[in-house]
Design goal:
This protein is an all-beta fold. The protein is about 0% helix and about 40% strand. The longest helix is centred in the first third of the chain and has 4 residues. The protein starts with a strand and ends with a strand.
C-alpha cells in the first residue's frame, strides 16, 4: 500500500492582501474571454485582430507522445497561481487546491505517496535537500519529507504563497504575495530572516520564485527590479532595474518579473512583463546586455540561447552572449503561451487550450504538438528530466511526454 498522510490547516482565513494586484482577467487570460461570443470577432464575422491565433497546419519533424497522466485534485482554475510540478530523483511532486500533495514516478506516473491536506495549496512545490515545500492561499508553508511525504515542519506567513519555494544550502526561501521573502532553516523550519519589497499599485497576478546561488539569493520583483540578497543574513547586496515602468497609467507602468531569474554560472538572466530582458553579472549586479524582447514568465535556457514568450504570445529566442534576437515565432500569437522549457533541442510552451507546442531551437519552426490531459490551460512552467517533459493544467491534471525525432 502506498502511504497516505493527512494534515489539517491551523487557521483558515482569507489572505490579508489580494495583492491590490489585478488578475487582468481578459487581457491576460484569453482562455476565459475567448468563450464569450463576439468579443474577438469583427463586424463581418471574420476573426478580429485580438482573436487567439488558430492552430496552424505544419509538417511535423518530431513526434510528441503522452506516456501517462494523473489527477492531483482540484486545480487552480482562475486563481492565477500558475501551478506546476517539481521533479527530482525520478519523482514528480505536484499539489492541488484540494487533496494535498502527491509524489509520482517520473517514468510511469504511478503514485508513490500521497499526503492528504485541507490546506488550499495553490502554489507550486519546491524540492531539494530531501524536502518538498509548498505554500497555500492562506499563508501556510508545508514542508514534507521527499521520500515518504511525512510532515517535517510547518510555518505561517501573513499573505498567500503561490510561488514555488527555493531550497538549497540549508535554507528554504519563500516568497509571499505581499513582496516579502522569508528564509527558513531547512531542517527545523525556524525563521532565519525576512526581506520586504514595496509593491506597486498594480501588478500582474503571480510572483517569481527566488533563485539560489553560491551564498546569494536572487529575487525578481513586481517593480521590475532584481535584487541579490546575502543568503545567510538577507541583507541586500545589489539591485538592478530590468523592466522600466514607463507610461501615464498604472496599467502601462506594470513591469513585473514573475519568472524566476535564471542563473548560468556567473550570469543571471531575467525578463519582465514590460518586454525587457537583461543579462546581469551575478556577483556584482553589472548589466551585460539588455533587449526589448521579453515577458513576465520564466526564460527557457538552452546551450547558447534563451526562449521567452512575450505578452502578445510571440515567442523569441535570444543569444545568451549578446541578447541578439535569433528568431521569433508568431504562430502562437494571443494563445497566451506560458513559460518555456527546453526538451531535446526544442523549446516547449503550453497554451490556453492545453496544447503543448514544440519549436525547433535552431530556427523556431513548429516541430510537434500534443495536448495535455483534461484540455485545460497550461499556465505553469513545464519541467524536463531524463527526457520526460511534465506539465500541470489549471484543472489539476499532470501529463508526461516523450519526444521522438
Amino acid at each position: 500500500m502506498k502511504p497516505v498522510n493527512t494534515i489539517r490547516p491551523t487557521i483558515s482565513r482569507k489572505s490579508m492582501l489580494l495583492r491590490g494586484a489585478v488578475v487582468l482577467s481578459c487581457a491576460m487570460a484569453l482562455a476565459g474571454c475567448s468563450t464569450v461570443r463576439g468579443w474577438f470577432s469583427s463586424d463581418d464575422g471574420e476573426p478580429g485582430v485580438t482573436e487567439p491565433m488558430p492552430l496552424q497546419d505544419f509538417t511535423e519533424t518530431a513526434t510528441a507522445t503522452r506516456i501517462w497522466s494523473a489527477s492531483v485534485g482540484k486545480g487552480e482554475r482562475r486563481i492565477g497561481s500558475r501551478q506546476g510540478p517539481a521533479v527530482a530523483d525520478g519523482r514528480v511532486y505536484a499539489a492541488g487546491m484540494s487533496n494535498g500533495v502527491r509524489a509520482l514516478d517520473l517514468q510511469t506516473g504511478n503514485e508513490l505517496w500521497h499526503t492528504q491536506s485541507d490546506l488550499r495549496l495553490a502554489g507550486s512545490p519546491g524540492v531539494g535537500d530531501g524536502l518538498v515545500v509548498v505554500g497555500s492561499l492562506d499563508g501556510d508553508v508545508l514542508a514534507l519529507d521527499a521520500g515518504t511525504g511525512a510532515v517535517r515542519w510547518t510555518a505561517k506567513l501573513g499573505n498567500e504563497v503561490i510561488a514555488a519555494p527555493a531550497i538549497g544550502q540549508g535554507a528554504v526561501l519563500v516568497r509571499s504575495n505581499d513582496g516579502r521573502v522569508t528564509s527558513f532553516n531547512a531542517a527545523t523550519g525556524e525563521r532565519n530572516w525576512f526581506w520586504t519589497n514595496e509593491l506597486p499599485a498594480l501588478t500582474v497576478r503571480g510572483g517569481a520564485s527566488p533563485t539560489i546561488g553560491p551564498g546569494y539569493v536572487f529575487v525578481g520583483n513586481d517593480d521590475g527590479t532584481v535584487i541579490a540578497l546575502d543568503l545567510a543574513s538577507g541583507q541586500p547586496v545589489w539591485e538592478q532595474q530590468v523592466g522600466y515602468p514607463d507610461g501615464r497609467t498604472e496599467l502601462e507602468r506594470m513591469s513585473d518579473i514573475d519568472g524566476s531569474p535564471v542563473l548560468d554560472n556567473m550570469v543571471l538572466y531575467a525578463s519582465s512583463y514590460r518586454g525587457q530582458t537583461m543579462a546581469i553579472e551575478a556577483p556584482t549586479g553589472r548589466p551585460l546586455w539588455g533587449r526589448e524582447q521579453g515577458g513576465a514568465g520564466r526564460l527557457g535556457e538552452g546551450f547558447d540561447r534563451l526562449v521567452i514568450a512575450d505578452r502578445t504570445g510571440v515567442v523569441h529566442a535570444l543569444d545568451k552572449n549578446t541578447g541578439s534576437n535569433l528568431w521569433q515565432q508568431d504562430a502562437l500569437a494571443r494563445r497566451n503561451p506560458g513559460p518555456a522549457a527546453i526538451h531535446d533541442n526544442h523549446a516547449v510552451v503550453g497554451d490556453f487550450e492545453g496544447w503543448l507546442h514544440w519549436l525547433r531551437m535552431d530556427n523556431g519552426q513548429l516541430a510537434a504538438r500534443a495536448r495535455a490531459a483534461g484540455r485545460d490551460a497550461i499556465k505553469g512552467t513545464p519541467v524536463v528530466s531524463d527526457g520526460v517533459l511534465v506539465v500541470q493544467t489549471v484543472g489539476g491534471d499532470v501529463s508526461a511526454f516523450r519526444l521522438q525525432q
